[in-house]
């Protein structure tokens, strides 16, 4: 696998880890609601920054446009579907934030579960279909260019902040939810 595609796979692993923590957090609602709220706010930050800014940027601004250039049909098909998913995810996170603000924990968690399920389905389509297409459509030079642009994007947003967001997940995991 080319390093550019591998970078996206590795981010997916971390995002799936966050989704697992988010689902497990339900058990805190009755016993430790304050900790539930803190955990969810941390996860919202993670999903908005790590998943949406660092990761979705790579797909939306770099990889998908490169793929669409090679095959115009893709732009209206699966890539369009992926972009619509990303937009839906932003709306879902806003809804979750609103429910948390109103301290409607159980409704918030139902929305979190729906978000995580949709996110996992989305990632499965990218892993199983979209990334294989990318490796077929783009040659090694084009994939190298994609990788450099991924690295530039991370650097602009902050490599240290990206590492901090991933490390934050470990603290939530080891906190024995
Ligand atoms: Fe995506
Ligand atoms: Fe993705």
CATH class, anyone? Mainly Alpha
Q: List the total number of helices.
A: 8
End-to-end distance: 35 Å
Number of domains: 1
Could you say what the CATH architecture is? Answer: Up-down Bundle
Main pleated sheet? none
* Share of residues in helices: over 70%
State the low-pLDDT regions, or none: none
Helix and strand pattern = HHHHHHHH
Bound molecules: fe (ii) ion
Q: From the alpha-carbon coordinates, what is the Rg to the nearest angstrom? A: 17 Å
Strand content: under 5%
Outline:
The protein is 90% helix and 0% strand. The chain is mostly helical.
Any overview of this molecule?
With 177 residues, this protein is mainly alpha-helical. It has a single domain (3-174), classed as Four Helix Bundle (Hemerythrin (Met), subunit A) (Up-down Bundle). It is built from 8 helices and no strands. It is elongated and about 55 Å long. The mean pLDDT is 95. Bound molecules: fe (ii) ion (2 copies).
